[in-house]
């Protein structure tokens, strides 16, 4: 009887699975978990991925025509238009049929996940036990929290750049998210400071941004401007001469970060060994002692016994790019303004 009940229970599980929706726990690309995703949709044993997450997974850009309900994903090689309720897509200049119709759910266009396999030649799988959706990933190797590895990730950087990597020496600077940038695809990046080998006088040349999902690499020289002069993209060991741009607002946020790191290094070379990460806010009391403005905030940490320990906080004026370092001391804080190296001492127990 127990065996018979077990068969019935198994049948019900399969039946329910095939007629209902089931959300995935995580989406992984090259073993790294994509952050802030729209859950994978499982309908009748078929997986659907949001076009936004598909774009991140392939290192592309995305646009949405809300009137016609058409989403367009572009990469260096492909342009794909998905229409709600249709299983016909426009692939570059040709119309192609896909396995299932796209569906609009909770305001997000969901498309058959098999397009990752059919159009981008990526290996995909769905683990019904863990509810993880894997893209070029192995369940045993996936990571939820992305951490930089000096040996492995520097090697990936050099491999993606190819022969040009021999011109530079690389130092890991920080991990940061790029969103709505003008040139970089949305995603998470390892950022490396780059100095030209054998050129001591020139020092820091710029920054290399490696996408942790696709391993595509973008080079931003220190003097990069909104017109994109000097910005390069590398993939699979070669430079992409005419690469797809994200086409969004600006490069200001990333350039601000690179200037911040450079200013700090120039003020005290020992601070170049710290790890800098973005923050949503810092101690509000600090902000009472610097000019009112829009700021980017950072946390500076130092590795001790393989653990990152916070050391000090930073505010950077989004307009002037002036940097304020807040160094705690007994009963107060020293505020160091860069690049002028102006120092202001604040007693936190007294009102100014």
UniProtKB/TrEMBL annotation:
Residues 1-24 form the signal peptide. Pfam families: Cu_amine_oxidN1 (PF07833). Coiled coil: none annotated. Keywords: Signal. Residues 28-134 form the Copper amine oxidase-like N-terminal domain. InterPro entries: Cu_amine_oxidase-like_N, Mao_N_sf. This is Copper amine oxidase-like N-terminal domain-containing protein. The lineage of its organism: Bacteria, Bacillati, Bacillota, Clostridia, Peptostreptococcales.
